Amino acid sequence: MTETLAFVIDMLVHATPLIITGLAVAIAFRAGVWNIGADGQFIAGATAAAWVGVSASVEIGWLALVAALIAGIIAGAIWAALAAWLRSRFGVLEVISTIMLNFIATYGASFLVRGPLQEPTHVYPQTSGIASGAHMPILVSGTRLHWGFIVALVVAVMAWWVMKYSATGFRVRASGVNPFAARSAGLIDVSRVTTVAFVVSGAIAGLAGAIEVSGVTFALYENISPGYGYTAIAVALLAGLNPLGVIGTGILFGALETGAGAMQRNIGVPSTTASVIEAIVILAVIAVAQLRANRVTRAA
Amino acid sequence: MSDVALELASITKRFGRLTALDAASLRARRGTVHALLGENGAGKTTLMRIAFGMLQPDSGSITIDGTDCSFASPADAISAGIGMVHQHFTLVPAMTVAENIALGGRGSFRPAQIRDAIVVLSERTGLAVDPAARIEDLPAGAQQRVEILKALSRDTRILILDEPTAVLTPAEARELLQKARELVSNGGTAILITHKLRDALEFADDITVLRRGSTAWTGHASEATEETLVAAMLGGERTRTDAGSAATTVPEHDATVLSLRNVDVRDAAGVERLRSVTLSVSAGEILGVAAVEGNGQHELLRVLAGRLNVSSGDVTIPPIVGFIPEDRQRDALIQDFSLRDNIALLGAGARRGITNWTAIGKRTRELVRDYDVRARDELAMARSLSGGNQQKLVVGREITGSQTALVAENPSRGLDVQATAAVHARIRAARDAGMAVVIYSSDLDEVLALAGRVVVVHAGKVTEPPREYEWIGRAMLGVAGA
Questions:
Q1: In total, how many domains does chain A have?
Q2: Per-residue pLDDT tens digits for B110-139
């Protein structure tokens, strides 16, 4: 295998969780829900998937994978639903509640892999490996690239289609851009629409966590997410919250992170350079968008 | 020295390819109220922003008391003795009157000193305000007084008032304009931007009319008539706004479309907004609603439009009622959506499955054509339309969307003469087509021009006085009898 191909494979493996969490963030932001909690929902999904994957018996075969993915989706949805409920019931700002829930998820997972879910020898802070039936099939044989990448593409296309063509997607967009007009002119139940979008966003982030466990790590570790849910915000914003665009920006950020590792190994450039470049890209995008908005306002 | 306090000579201002002002001139004499008239977009506000240093002219000169001036910023204009009260309030709602008046001043903030200064200024000008009151607790009229006091608190000799009566009740507006007259009696100058001919003729000494960025007429108010001013404002393209009577015809078929019985509405804080309201609107009639701001008309219209649930009582309305809210920029349109997507908003709450964009696009094109909306195409952003075209789109969407009932709240707010005429014509056409129409306007003349029957909301109660200006005006203030 050539080095280029290896790089591309690595890039796509890295891009998979970024695309899926990026979609989660894009959907929430479109609905005007500032879900900063994709990381926590990712970890919740990974934890649930690992628990199911470890407990699954060998006999059920590939059903273990299905069960693990569903468990991840449900756990992510529940994690987001907590914040959605706090928002609709008490008006708690989701920006704050989701960040707090990220900490709870991170340290909750730490506790589990050192306690109840720790591997039997009690040496490493991780769970046992998941059942082989819960492993995501490999997409390109002889590489790490798994079917999760295809799932990411399918979810992206579905999200794009729903946003563009379905009545539900229109309600989400309208509620996100102008809840007043959505309510008054569209007679849309804005609080219901945003709550549903919030929970769906969490479910997708949870799916990303489950896919990471079943396709890459095969166990739950401490720090299973190196901040995917936060990078996802950049991925979503850079794509202009367009689900199809998220595929491209997810791959871009996957490339940056893969390249950063390679640069450090080969020529000693610190891998943090990639973070600096990511930040510069985001700043540039925000600046351009603002300039464009200013020009429109001035012309009007 | 001449008696001219402020002279703007041959002012030209371009924004890109648009010429907002084309050699416009204005001479305001000391000790007078000067009215600046013109349609929306004629350049009134732009001209005054130049006088106040918010904009710099491309050419032309500004002279104060015979001395040439140029202002780089409002701060320069303020130190030259010019004050401006903007069309939209520029007060901080969470702060007190005293804090707002002190805002923008120099040095340290001494509450007691400011308070005393306000009391003195209040007494001198007769503009009564409580310095300790919070802005958000004050009615619009009182906020307007605070704006004026703020402008006057800085040794202002020339006061510019940009559409000061737009948010006021008729009584508050008269009081304000009388105050403006008193202010100029000791040598000050007031410039009143307005599009109300009646106010200009009654309260101004001199009048300048702008049309498309140029001075179209200027002279003493005593020499002007409504006819000459309208002709100057509109030029060749004269339109009569009040054409077509209110048609007080009794509807032929007495089919009740909207009806309320003993309706009470309490807001989130438990305050009673409507008290045992009973009224009905028939097909083919326009019911006018008159009220002073904050008396429950906001809630009444939303109950009739099916946008607000009642606390008790019976409401009978059709499943879809067209609604034209007062704040169309916020409540009727999504500015960053295309026209087509804004049309798709109609019925979006109940739509199922897949959106048929082809059909909605076709409907949008028809609506844009039928309602004379000037737009590039149906995919243009709502934001790119002028206020009048936005309103025509909303009116078209709501009328065609319901066919049975329409509720309109201040439908001509911020529109120019021609757009207002177009909107009024549509509302009358809706009535003639058999719709039950309810219209509220803070301009009583507009209510009377459209409605066959007028009810008044005062303190949450609905009454129906005789359909005459005086009677309605009294009922709005809660004064019984004549």
A1: 1
A2: 888 888 888 888 887 777 888 888 988 887
A279 in a structural domain = no
Same fold, B4-234 and B256-476: yes
pLDDT digits (tens, 9 = 90+) for B336-363: 999 999 999 998 999 999 999 999 999 9
Give the number of other CB atoms < 10 A from CB of residue A270: 11
For residue B304, give how far its alpha carbon lies from the nearest alpha carbon of chain A (Å): 13
Q: What pLDDT is attached to residue A113? A: 93
H-state helical runs in B129-194: 140-152, 170-184
Asked if the structure places residue A153 within a domain, the reply is yes
Least confident of A221-230, B78-87, B233-242, B310-319: B233-242
Using an 8 Å CB-CB cutoff, list chain A residues near B332.
181, 184-185
**Partner residue facing B355 (CB), from A165, A184, A186:** A165
Query: What CATH number is given for B4-234 in this structure?
Result: 3.40.50.300
Nearest to B349 among A166, A178, A187 (CB): A187
The parent domain of residue A150 ranges over 16-225
Contacts of B337 in chain A (CB under 8 A): 173-174, 177
Say if A188 falls within a structural domain.
yes
- Structure ipTM over 0.90, yes or no: no
Instruction: Report, in this order, helix, strand and coil percent for chain B, each rounded to 5.
Output: 35, 25, 40
User: Which amino acid, one-letter code, is at B326?
Assistant: E
Domain boundaries, chain B: 4-234, 256-476
**Nearest by CB to A181, which of B15, B331, B384?**
B331
**pTM score above 0.80:** no
Contacts of B17 (CB under 8 A, 6+ apart): none
- Select from A160, A161, A164, A170 the residue whose CB has the most chain B CBs within 10 Å, as the one to mutate to test that interface: A170
Answer yes or no: CATH 3.40.50.300 is held by domain B256-476: yes
Residues of chain A contacting residue B16, judged by C-beta atoms under 8 Å apart: 299
Report yes or no: A167 at the B interface, CB cutoff 8 Å: yes
Q: Quick check: is A260 in a domain?
A: no
* H or E segment and range at residue A294: helix A272-299
Q: Using CA atoms, how far apart are residues B275 and B460, in angstroms rounded to an integer?
A: 5
The residues, ordered by sequence, that sit 6+ positions from B113 with a Cβ below 8 Å of its Cβ are: none
